[in-house]
């Protein structure tokens, strides 16, 4: 698939890498937080952090600058910004459904409840996903697209774009997952949590292309500081 490369600069520090927050993250299940509300919003942007990340800290630099609150609104005054947080250490669904599948479904549910309650369910929606948050967003869009309830389906229908930051390319992940599943097969494979998680992820990546043509997909890769600025290299599907 052809790509063209665009490079632009952000006049602040980029979001730092996700890091474990064992003491402060324990109480987090899932939560949609309003980070910045536009006076006349035309679009909602929802950021989803990576594995063991944090809904605030994952988008905040060491100097305290929050990318969603302090930077993006200056360039996009017609967008309202949200951060969706989740706990990656919750094992309550172990042995039932893969954790990432449950989180994907909860993302759709949380978004619909908020957008329906605020009467914004028809407003265009953009996702920004970092690292493993990209897999959760892909799973959420697939779940929404195939859900028989028209209310849940509205999440995917409203989505007009997704920015994946630091999310591995699909082809490389498919090859690795296929190899892992082939080598991990056996009588007890279905009872193994890692096997179930990998199976769900492989299924999600394979199916995602079916719906990705309905909106714009952008892949971004963070780079280090350059004269007090940080730039993000972006590959846009052409």
Automatic annotation (TrEMBL):
InterPro entries: AB_hydrolase_fold, SERAC1. It is found in: Endoplasmic reticulum; Membrane; Mitochondrion. Its main location: endoplasmic reticulum. SUPFAM superfamilies: alpha/beta-Hydrolases. Keywords: Endoplasmic reticulum, Membrane, Mitochondrion. One of its GO terms (cellular component) is endoplasmic reticulum. It comes from the Eukaryota. This is DUF676 domain-containing protein. It comes from Aspergillus indologenus CBS 114.80.
């Amino acid at each position: 698939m052809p790509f063209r490369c665009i490079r632009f600069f952000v006049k602040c520090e980029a979001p730092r890498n996700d890091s474990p927050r064992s003491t402060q993250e324990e109480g987090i299940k899932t939560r949609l937080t309003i980070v910045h509300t536009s006076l006349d919003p035309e679009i909602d942007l929802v950021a989803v952090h990576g594995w063991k990340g944090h809904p605030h800290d994952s988008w905040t630099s060491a100097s305290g600058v929050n990318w969603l609150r302090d930077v993006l609104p200056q360039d996009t005054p017609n967008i309202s910004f949200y951060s969706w947080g989740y706990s990656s250490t919750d094992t309550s669904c172990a042995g039932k459904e893969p954790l990432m599948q449950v989180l994907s479904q909860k993302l759709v549910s949380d978004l619909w409840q908020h957008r329906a309650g605020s009467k914004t369910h028809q407003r265009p929606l953009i996702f920004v996903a970092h690292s493993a948050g990209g897999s959760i967003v892909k799973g959420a869009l697939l779940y929404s697209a195939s859900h028989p309830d028209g209310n849940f389906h509205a999440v995917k229908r409203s989505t007009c774009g997704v920015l994946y930051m630091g999310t591995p390319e699909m082809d490389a992940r498919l090859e690795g997952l296929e190899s892992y599943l082939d080598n991990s097969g056996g009588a007890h494979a279905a009872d193994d949590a890692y096997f179930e998680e990998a199976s769900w992820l492989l299924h999600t990546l394979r199916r995602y292309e079916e719906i990705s043509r309905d909106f714009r997909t952008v892949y971004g890769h963070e780079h280090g500081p350059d004269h007090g600025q940080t730039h993000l290299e972006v590959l846009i599907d052409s």
